[in-house]
Every structure is written in structure tokens, then in C-alpha cells.
Design a protein that fits this description.
single chain, mainly alpha, 5 helices
């Protein structure tokens, strides 16, 4: 289920940024990006404050190894990552 607010509920500046992403990145922003940028104070910033240390913090795996693992798992789940 896709929430309508994630498609057209952003403020005007965010709508412009999301509209420019396909031109710059040659791909539509995925639902995670749209969720993180919709009311970022409610979900996006707190979520990223937790996620970044987990993804980029100290580990015996390198960042490249973690990215490779995430890519492999996403592929196994047929997720575009």
C-alpha cells in the first residue's frame, strides 16, 4: 500500500527536490527516500540518527562488505536496492 501523502503531500521545496532527482540520478526517488523526507522531524531524522551508526559505525566488516551484504540480501528479496 502506498500512502498518497508520499506521492504528493510534500511541501513545495521538497516537491521540487523530488522532481529534480530523476533528472540528476536518472531514477525516480524510491519510497524510502519519500518517507524519510516527508515530515523529517517526525520520522526521517530520528530514524537516520539510529540507522547511520548501525550502517557506518564501528564493525569488523568494512563499509564495502556491509554494502555488498545489503545488495545481496536485497537481490535475494527481489528488492531494487
Amino acid at each position: 500500500m502506498r500512502l498518497g501523502c508520499l506521492t504528493n503531500g510534500h511541501n513545495p521545496l521538497r516537491k521540487l527536490q523530488l522532481a529534480m532527482m530523476p533528472l540528476a540520478l536518472r531514477m525516480r526517488p524510491n519510497d524510502l527516500v519519500r518517507t524519510l523526507t516527508y515530515r523529517p522531524g517526525l520520522f526521517g531524522k530520528p530514524f537516520m540518527a539510529i540507522a547511520q551508526p548501525l550502517l557506518r559505525g564501528r564493525s569488523f566488516w568494512t563499509v564495502a562488505e556491509r554494502e555488498r551484504m545489503a545488495s545481496h540480501i536485497s537481490r535475494q528479496n527481489q528488492c531494487l536496492f
